[in-house]
């Protein structure tokens, strides 16, 4: 994958191709772009930790600027390397539910319903790690 200096000027000139392609930043290792064949451009961060690749889509151009994406990438990379990033599989159902309903993507009534229904029907599972919940359960 080619390494370039990712700048807003470069991002403005990118064109889609027949297949999606990636560009890596030469200034911040782990920061890059994915240009999809539809023409959408997404910022990504990728880092190796304990022998596994951790990749995160940071946002889409032009909603996110290059500087904002670079800052998010740096935060993600440092969180992974320090071990402070907890994977979804290692967190409890209670914490996962709290993260899911936080923010503004759900309507207030939906949040209220989730806060009542999920703990009522899944009370035995709320403190279990998500990875320990099986299909059979």
Explain this structure.
The chain is elongated. Strand 1 (3-4), helix 1 (8-13) and strand 2 form a beta-alpha-beta unit. It has helices at residues 8-13, 66-82, 93-101, 108-121; strands at residues 3-4, 21-25, 31-35, 41-49, 52-61. The protein is 34% helix and 23% strand. By secondary structure, the chain is an alpha+beta fold. It has 4 helices and 5 strands, in the order E-H-E-E-E-E-H-H-H. A 5-stranded mixed sheet has the order 1-2-3-4-5, covered by helices on one side.
Sequence-ordered SSE layout with sheet pairings:
Blueprint: E1 3-4, H1 8-13, E2 21-25, E3 31-35, E4 41-49, E5 52-61, H2 66-82, H3 93-101, H4 108-121
Parallel strand pairs: 1-2
Antiparallel strand pairs: 2-3, 3-4, 4-5
Question: What is the H-and-E element order?
Answer: EHEEEEHHH
Average pLDDT level: 88
Shape: elongated
Kindly state the percentage of residues in helix.
25-40%
Provide a compact summary of the structure.
Helix content is 34%, strand content 23%. With 137 residues, it is of the alpha+beta class. Strands 1-2-3-4-5 form a five-stranded mixed beta sheet, covered by helices on one side.
Task: Provide tags for this entry.
137 residues, alpha+beta, 5-stranded mixed sheet
